[in-house]
Design goal:
Elements lengths: L3 H27 L6 H19 L2 H11 L1 H5 L3 H18 L3 H24 L2 H22 L5 H9 L5 H28 L11 H15 L6 E5 L5 E5 L2 E6 L6 H19 L16 H16 L2 H14 L1 H4 L4 H7 L17 H16 L8 H13 L25 H20 L3 H5 L5 H12 L7 H9 L6 H14 L2
Parallel strand pairs: 1-3
Antiparallel strand pairs: 2-3
Helix pairs in contact: 1-2, 1-3, 2-6, 3-5, 6-7, 7-8, 9-16, 9-22, 10-11, 10-13, 11-12, 12-18, 13-15, 16-17, 16-18, 18-22
């Protein structure tokens, strides 16, 4: 008879293959030489195919079927049932895709990402276009294999946020959009009226590195279990338990981009470090969803990093590292500078208020492409029109427009909405943390964020994927996911900032 231990043994083997793939992916984005791209794509495809064959084998399917039988399933603990349910979901989704199609997807997405890197540097959409067309065709074919009820996009977003659909996203984003557009106009005007505070200057990379290591230490990042490296497009990767890699970039004209990017990736890394070791090498040793994952990065970047209480403690340390440039900039002016509301071209550099408009644009374009309402040939023009419509600006180049994100080159259609959901979840979690920890912000002014870290670890990190996203949110906060917490948060914060 199949036991839960058999499932754990199988998942341990699968985890080892995923660890190899994660390490290869990390290396590709950091230190791999350009000429290694073709071999890396083939090697990645080979290992991924092996993983795919194992994960979709009849042996695994029979094991899950045995564990799902009423007699066996009824004898399992709640956590064990969660393991079986997640394994069953992953198996059914993986089994839906023919091995040959998955291999094509793996190889082409790896190649396409490298082509995207060059195309963006050259501002050459035409170079990227034929490869993305082919990749998008494969993604569309995959939606037919996954199956869906109303919209093929549902099959894709469900990969990243279980239970989410295009209809649910639209129900969230359109009321949010209607609130954000006038708020952005109002706050942008008030920001201009109060005067611009420029942080441009010369900030040597070696000093930025010192600063970023400092903030990671304050935030509790465990360097015995993680590391930070440099890359063009910051990301976080878990190679395995005790090996979490985050990355950042150093822009010598403005350190704040790298600083808050480092805080953001720190939040991702802290989540990965916080899973319960009792569940290692099991289906629930991982995030509840990518939206929950994003909520943690935004918790560290925005609710902590850009907050006045935390900057009250940390800004003097920044001034110590860059005294010549920052000695005459007060705490209040720095706080206002790093919370300026201004429509911008680049998603990852956007402020808290305008950020979700960037995501809404991407969601609408993805939904249109997947449903054959938008051709790849017309994507740059559609992108530019959306930016003009929602943010009042138009990209001067494709490099700062349609080519700015890595996601589409990697075949990650349906991923972007998780960023927006993360902002909403994060605000809801923070509101509950403030309720449970009444002295939280007072402690932040002394540089003590450990009470919040402990709260996050116990409530959100340790459970991993035991609960579905909506279940976890309701369990932690006492209510279902609701955008009102985010709207209340930004309205209160920015009304105080620009009154």
């Amino acid at each position: 008879m199949t036991t839960i231990e058999d499932l754990k043994t199988t998942y341990r083997d699968l985890t080892m293959l995923m660890s190899a793939l994660a390490l290869m992916g990390w290396d590709q984005r950091t230190y791999m030489p350009d000429e290694g791209a073709n071999h890396r794509a083939e090697a990645f495809g080979f290992i991924h195919s092996d993983f795919f064959k194992r994960a979709t084998s009849d042996e695994v399917g029979n094991m899950i079927s045995d564990l799902k039988s009423p007699e066996t399933y009824g004898s399992l603990s709640f956590v064990e049932k969660s393991m079986v349910d997640k394994a069953d979901r992953e198996y059914r989704r993986a089994k839906a895709i023919p091995p040959e199609l998955m291999h094509r997807y793996s190889v082409l997405s790896t190649k396409c990402e490298k082509i995207w890197e060059t195309a963006r540097k050259r501002d050459d959409y035409e170079m990227f276009k034929p490869h993305f067309k082919e990749l998008l065709s494969i993604v569309k074919e995959m939606t037919r294999h996954y199956g869906y009820e109303d919209n093929p996009y549902d099959a894709l977003v469900d990969n990243y946020e279980p239970g989410m659909t295009a209809a649910k996203i639209k129900a969230i984003i359109y009321p949010l959009r209607d609130h954000l557009v006038p708020l952005v106009e109002d706050l942008s005007r008030r920001s201009k009226d109060s005067g611009e505070i420029s942080m441009n200057g010369h900030y040597p990379a070696n000093l930025q590195k010192k600063l970023f290591l400092n903030v990671l230490e304050v935030m509790g990042f465990d360097f015995s279990r993680g590391r930070i490296d440099e890359t063009a497009h910051p990301f976080t990767t878990s190679i395995g338990p005790g090996d979490i890699r985050i990355s950042t970039k150093y822009l010598e004209h403005d350190f704040t981009i790298g600083l808050f990017g480092t805080m953001h990736e720190c939040g991702h890394g802290m989540y990965e470090m916080g899973y319960d070791d009792e569940h290692v090498y099991t289906p629930v040793y991982g995030p509840a969803s990518l939206g929950i994952h994003e909520s943690q990065s935004l918790m560290f970047e925005n609710h902590i990093g850009r907050s006045l209480p935390f900057l009250t403690y940390f800004y003097p340390k920044i001034q110590e590292i860059f005294p010549r440039r920052l000695s005459d900039i007060s705490l209040h002016d720095f706080y206002r500078a790093v919370n300026t509301v201004r429509p911008s071209l680049i998603r990852i550099d956007a402020d808290e208020v305008t950020y979700n408009l960037h995501i809404i644009i991407r969601f609408e374009l993805e939904d249109a492409m997947i449903n054959d309402r938008l051709e790849v040939d017309d994507l740059p023009a559609a992108w530019n029109e959306k930016y003009k419509q929602y943010l009042g600006i138009e990209p001067p180049s494709d490099a700062d427009g349609v080519l700015q994100d890595v996601h589409w080159s990697s075949g990650m259609i349906g991923y972007f909405p998780t960023y927006m959901l993360g902002t909403l979840y994060s605000a809801q979690f923070y509101a509950k943390a403030m309720e449970d920890l009444p002295n939280l912000e007072e402690k932040m002014t002394d540089g003590d964020i450990q009470p919040l870290v402990d709260w996050l670890r116990e409530k959100i990190h340790k459970p991993g994927a035991i609960y579905k996203p909506e279940e976890l949110i309701e369990r932690v906060t006492g209510s279902k996911p609701d955008s009102k917490y985010f709207i209340d948060y930004i309205t209160r914060k920015f009304s105080d900032l620009y009154r």
